[in-house]
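[stage:ingest] chain + small molecule (5'-deoxyadenosine)
[stage:ingest] validated
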Amino acid sequence: MNADFDRRFLMDWLTEEDPLRLADLWRMADTSRRENVGEDVHLRGLLEISNFCIRQCAYCGLRAPNMQLQRYRMTEEEIMECARKAWKLGCGTLVLQGGEDPGLTRKAVGAVVRRIKEETPLAVTLSLGERLFDDLAHWRRAGADRYFIRFETSDTELYRRIHPSLPSRSSARLAILEALKELGYETGSGIMIGIPGQHVHSLVEDLLLFRSLDLDMIGVGPYLPHPETPLGRTGAPSPQSFSDQVLNSETMVYKVMALSRLLCPEANIPVTTGLATLNREGGYEQGLQRGGNVIMPGITPLHFGRNYEIYPGKVRFLEITSAVEEIKKRIRSIGRTVGSGPGERQRHVQGTLPGRVSLE
Ligand code: 5AD
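[stage:predict] done
[stage:export] tokens:
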């Protein structure tokens, strides 16, 4: 087996349309998931702590020029209240996510991370965009366990096109991923699926990059057009654009999740809110049966969260406690168990790289 074999394997599955054959892919991914990360589904409470953002990403509703948004930044007390709530609800991890907001200072984030670690048993994941090495180092010392930053696409030309202004090369995010590892963070990344201009062959490279980065967490979701963004105004990707345009379809997301599981068997792979937004009825269940082993219930108080509009129509619950109970019920309904504790990445074979794709 070699790199060409892997590319062919990935390309064949990404372009497969026969549902009967795809059932084999879902089965392989589910078997790998069971053998490598077990039946537990870990809950990570997702708290959106600020929607200020200095970036101008062409796809994202939080982009700085979007004036339709009321901007907010949660205080330390507000964050602590939500952290206690997440703990009470049975989440083992709290994810603090935000736009790229200089108002979230090194000191302020460090202080709240330290308090969460002192006052709760929660693991803390940060997802705060491209930050300086010294920020990342400070937050790690304060006790942050994990950091998540998507590289979005490995196609450098496409990356440049959707990240206008500011120095924004995808290599900056890759450098951050390396720095995070050096600092001892569990490290997560991912992509959007169905960006206009995204070719299927670039998805193959994205998947191979997941493996070579040896990611601990892989988050993938559909690109969903936001009308207040330059990219959103051009509409959804269409099969007519060019022959191997990636569609932002539910099936394509499952394919990428399933292949991620085969390439990175030990990774924690969430069923993202984006996927749940595409299929509110069965997205969580199917994602969990096609490679996923994590759900991130949104726990942001609604009066803040309604302004955290990365894309329109985001799944959001009116009442957090019953929403988490509902998610637990859905996990159990497919014979899985609700995980307890932080649910960190398990390493079965220490010090070796994850295996190559194989058909066995
Ligand atoms: N559709 C889907 N995902 C989006 N993101 C940002 N905007 C959109 C959109 N319109 C994702 C990006 C980013 C993460 C925080 O949200 O992948 O990394």
